[in-house]
Amino acid sequence: MPIPTRTPDVLVVGAGVAGLACAQDLLAGGLDVTVVEASDGVGGRMRSDRVEGFVVDRGFQVFNTSYPQVRRRLTLRALGLRPFTSGFLVHTAEGRLRFSDPTRGPRTLTDLVPGRLAGPRDLAALGLLSARDMLAPVGLVKRSRDRTTRTALADAGFSEGFVERFFRPFLSGVFLEDELETSSRFFHLVWRSMLRGTLCLPTTGIGAVPNALAAALPSGTVRLETAVTALTDEGAVTADGAELPARTVVVATGPGPAADLLPGLDLPGYRSVATYYHMPPRSPLREPTLLVDERRRFLNTCVLSEVVPACPPAGSALVATSVLGTDAEERESAVREALAEVYDTDTGPWDLLTSRTIREALPAMPPPQPLGRTTRVGPGRHVCGDHRSTGSVQGALASGARAAREVLRDLHRA
Questions:
Q1: What distance in Å separates the CA atoms of residue 43 and residue 202, rounded to the nearest whole number?
Q2: Mutual angle of helices 184-196 and 120-135, in 10-degree steps
Q3: DSSP string over 306-347
Q4: Are 100 and 87 in contact (CB under 8 A)?
């Protein structure tokens, strides 16, 4: 790929959503920007593939319409968003229980009748928690005392039984850890976003989100298949030895490449997740709803073809099921066995379309968790990504925006 002869003000290394947001704001600030990406497409972990006619995301992902950065940068209607059912199903020994968001309409209130999902004490605590997180100023949520989510739920008055049956199975799929050790500040922001927004998926897969961000940049801004192997005093060097000069470099890669380019960079641990995509002969659940398991044999499962009917070929069904950690021998058969129980069907005929393992899917966020950190790591050197903020699309976009603000301040002072 030809290397530009011009010297941009800023070189952004990595075309995930953090890097694309950073480039967008730098360009709006009047700077000349080049984005280089090692792979053959934008998006980082937010990419979609086509496998045997099916649209398959690289790991199960959902898109939340309430994120401020999302609403600022994207035309949601253009993504062709398909919503999940508000709430989720919990598989228990007594059968399925449904949690519905009571703010979405009076018909959902029957799902919260005392004794069906929880007792009066837990329902009262749930109502108070939800009202506070949904209605309180976000600054108040961000400044709240930080502790583990498990401790925060106990302090909020929830019984241990309700936490184990309701919160722990659901939040395991959000945090990618099942001990509820994640920062309570992050939990409250997640709960707030769920109450204020809609979980959904773009018709063409989650990759539509970074593709839309990239399409908003001037032609030629993003250069694919350009791997940066080292930073220099003048800019950066690619894998084939070409020099990329720039006044400032922003590293917006995943944690592994970021650590290679910026030795000594302080990075959190990361959670891994594996997703199995099965093709049943027919849909085992005729609704676009997340299903979690009280026994936590998996994180969550859903019939993707009910959420996005266009994702499989006509007449086909697709089920996505995620588990903590990585794919391993015999793990798929254990998942298949659990799915037979929770969907109450024979999963023997289900063909495995593919599986996806994301080894650095989400940063660990134990308390005390800073909700944003400076991106400046040295003169003319910045870094952004979800590891500098919160582990979400909002966090990655906000980190990219912060990097742009700090670069603009630095260059305008120079």
A1: 14
A2: 80
A3: HH-TTSSPTT---EEEEEES---TTHHHHHHHHHHHHTTS--
A4: yes
Handedness of CA 322, 163, 166, 175 (dihedral sign): negative
Instruction: Give the DSSP letter of residue 194.
Output: H
The overall pTM is greater than 0.70? yes
Q: How far apart are CA 405 and CA 135, in angstroms?
A: 29
**Per the omega criterion (within 30 degrees of 0), is the bond before 368 cis?**
yes
- d(Cα 31, Cα 187) in Å, to the nearest integer? 36
Digitized pLDDT (tens) for each residue of the chain, 414 residues in all: 444 557 899 999 999 999 999 999 999 999 999 999 999 999 999 999 999 999 999 988 999 999 999 999 999 999 999 999 999 999 999 899 999 876 665 555 455 555 567 889 999 999 999 999 999 999 888 888 999 999 999 999 999 999 999 999 999 999 999 999 999 999 999 999 999 999 999 999 999 999 999 999 999 999 999 999 999 999 999 999 999 999 999 999 999 999 999 999 999 999 999 999 999 999 999 999 999 999 999 999 999 999 999 999 999 999 999 999 999 888 999 999 999 999 999 999 999 999 999 999 999 999 998 887 899 999 999 999 998 888 789 999 999 999 999 999 999 865
Whether 250 contacts 13, CB under 8 Å: yes
